[in-house]
Design goal:
The structure is a single chain. By secondary structure, the chain is mainly alpha-helical. A two-stranded antiparallel sheet has the order 1-2. The radius of gyration is 22 Å and the shape is globular.
Length: 484
Amino acid sequence: MHASIILKVLGSLLMLFSLLANLPPIIVSLIYDDGMYQDFLSSMFIIFSLGSVLFFSATSNKKELGTRDGFLIVTLFWSALGIAGCLPFLFSPALDLSITDAVFESLSGLTTTGATVISGLDQLPKSILFYRQQLQWLGGMGIIVLAISLLPMLGIGGMQLYRAESPGPVKDNKLLPRLAETAKALWYLYLTLTIICALSYWLAGMNLFDAIGHSFATIAIGGFSTHDASMAYFDNSVIDIVAIVFMFVAGINFALHFTSWQRRSFRHYLNDPEFLFYAFILILVSIVTVSILYMSQIYDGAFDAFRKGVFQVVSFATTTGFTTADFNSWPLFLPYLLLYAAIIGACAGSTGGGMKVIRILLIFKQGFREVQRLIHPKAVIPVKLGRNPVPDRVIESVWGFFAVYVMAFMLMLLALLATGLDIITAFSAVGACINNLGPGLANVSETYEHLPSTAKWILCIAMLLGRLEIFTLLVLFTPMFWRR
């Protein structure tokens, strides 16, 4: 590993973050005259200064990042960001947060988890609300993807950083050549979707501030809101439809968006097995949810049952975490069905969390192949995605991910139970944080502020594991990683 290179990249990323995260809230503070701009100035100065020290301590190094360097930088960066991002929350006199709560809120935003420890959002200064929403947007696509486009100017290649940031089972080779140009194109696409979403919210009835803030959370699949009641605050069916459409779009592999945009064709969506399975899951879970809600007569009429049911299904299945209904009190198994949908999550290469649809699809196909092998033990039966066979190495990595995911889930569940939480709260809190969902069940259906500090730190680890898809973080704890 190259310690000087790691310090240089980490320093440049911190300097970039200090400007991107703090300058816009300063402008918002001045526009609304809420008096918070000095807190953001202090935060920007501290983070930029720290980044400058790291950067200029190794400014003469111009080398290619190694694989281990990429893993370490990505993990250090998200960990450092969670701490650095908490400064405005600590400095603001409008909030009374402990260091634990401030780090939890910051990390929840950056990892697009959307779990919050803050209540009384409607009374907070606009700049603080904007900062929370913006944290999700910066973390959604991954600020590292933006940094990849800048690394060549520093004399540092970004390929290993990209691989560490996106350890999914299937890579789209179209994204690998000319990585810096591709990173820029992805950010243009990300920004364009955000602008269209904001305009749609505004035309649907939100004021401009809420429209921009909720577009950040929607495209990033974050789930933070500027109101305690989340999307239920607006009670507007058109706004709900806009949210459903853009949550669905943001949950699709951005490589697929990129390819379709390049070739000006929607045919690639219909030819993509992951997209089709993703749409199938959403439709199936929506049908079950709406049917039970309608038959239970919880809402007045079929339209309300359809509106509430589909919104919550799409919100949970994409791991966004917006709410328009008290899903925690829904009948039968519906709350758990929503949580299981979040465990499946969105598509690989999207801004969503969860295990990713492609992994679940491959697990199903591998399971079906094992059943076929019982009947024909000597047959050679490949697992295919569309017409393309999937290498056994990829299948092995998927099962390895699943095994590690289950073990990590169980260990953190036991750790939360040891802090005194009940089983439903503990189970749903781990599920909501490791899948970057946000709202859980029982005592964490609305806020996490009443949990013990130890439980919050455990959940911070869960959020990082989910954002880095487990392996990127756990690889640092293997002896092989540190051997020369």
